[in-house]
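Human: I hope this is not a bother. Would you mind checking the protein record under this note? Thank you for your patience.
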Amino acid sequence: MRKQRSDGQETRQRLLIAASEIFSKKGFWETTNADICEKARANTAAVNYHFGSKENLYIQAWKYSFDKSIIAHPPDGGVNANAPAEEKLQGSILALMSRIADPQSHDFEIVHKEMANPTGLLTEIIEKSITPLDNDFQAIIRELLGNKASEQEVAFCYMSVKGQCFGPMLHLRRSRSTPAIPRPKDLALTCDIKKLAEHITQFSLIAIDGIRKKIEQAKKDTKKQ
């Protein structure tokens, strides 16, 4: 009985690995259970046996890929929680950029396929998984902006920082995985990711400091009126 349970867990693991890779390349609609089982070296009935349906496997495959990516690239970037906000920001930026650029982070590709041909199946699991990361990142920005900043101002700054991370890293990721897309030639995309993360951090800190000062000045002007 122990061997059967062990074999079952191994098969389930192989299905998750195979599904995450195939869903990332073909998307939900173009992927079949037969595709997954063939790659996982499993019986064609294995998907329904272990996951109940292709739909549930799709959800679990994304979560498996996401968790694997988070383990490989911890969201804090290895920076201590008690470190200054500036250091925590750089750690978070570097971690996010590393996750995006990592070709083994299949969760990003699955989401892109989902956006192109939606199923609606991943909405709940993505929100549940991503929201804590968003909250932690925004908490750092809130600390840098000061307690006078509104939620909208924090959200706008967060959006701006993330945009700087996603743009170049998605371009780099696409050029690595798609031969038809030329490798980036501009210096910003060919330098070390850590150096680019340092630049984005410094650029963002200057912008955030400027916004913080503007917020504080607006509050002072309001009190004078």
Notes: The first helix runs from residue 2 to 30. The chain has a mean pLDDT of 90. The two ends are 79 Å apart (CA to CA). The chain has ten helices and no strands.
